[in-house]
Here is the input.
Amino acid sequence: MTYKLTKLAFVMALIVVTLGALTRLLDAGLGCPDWPGCYGQIIPPSSEEHDLVHEGKAWMEMIHRYVATALGAVILVIALAVQSTPNISNKIKWMSRFLLALVIVQGLFGMWTVTLKLLPQVVTLHLLGGMAVLSTIFLMLLMLRQPTVITTPNKPKLLSMAVLILLSVQIALGGWTSSTYSGLACTDFPTCDGHFLPPMDIAQSFHLTEFSDRNYEGGLLEPEERVTIQYTHRVMALIVFIAIFSLFLQLRKTAEFKSKANILLGLTLLQISIGISTAMLMLPLSLALLHNTGAALLLLAVVYINYTVFSAQNTLQKTDSTVNS
Here is the structure.
């Protein structure tokens, strides 16, 4: 039952992450300016009271909220079920507690996204929180199923962890690019705003401690600052690609990892292609949404490789200790 509930939560988390991206891309984050209701109501007001555009944005925001709330309820049930199951490992029990705490914090960031009027720091952390919830559920699924013993060298252990960290930073930069409305700062490639090294302002572009009560919808940064953010996101993409390609070469040395390595590289190349196309085609909704989904899938692939590498090495260590004894 726990495994089936966790699979349900995983599917729901994917939907919530996609709905969150769609809400952001449609500028519907403030479709309901209050929280938890919408203009003081459980459902958005009708078009007789508000124009059709605002009504559509309000519905988008509320659908996102309600599906996220349903996900939170499923995660609560999973946590309770895991705690009451005696033969489940302590790792999974602690994982379920962490997941429950994470989804509660994520709910708070959802509220602050509205009450702080799309403050970029909060919006970015909300996106990262969604990815963290999705990854944690996926990790629980992997832990709940029977492990597969794989013989693997030691080198990919550190490299796979490094890739996970670098990819997380890149996703954060992508969130910052989106939340500061910097996606269209450079619509050319490989140049950015006509330059291979455009004029930039790092300090103002990543001023993370700046807070105000202004409405951040549409973005408040200067063009040069948005170019800086977009360019940094591109440079980081190159760094992540180099790291993933290095991991790809290492993984292919082990027969059991060849197919996984091919999938990882394929997802990476696809994600880069979508990112370039999204900028050059002036941020079409379908591609921008696919870029967000691609980031989630790439993250899950890296999480899976990390889990498999670490589990395989732990299994080998146990086998060695058994033989030696």
The chain has a mean pLDDT of 90.
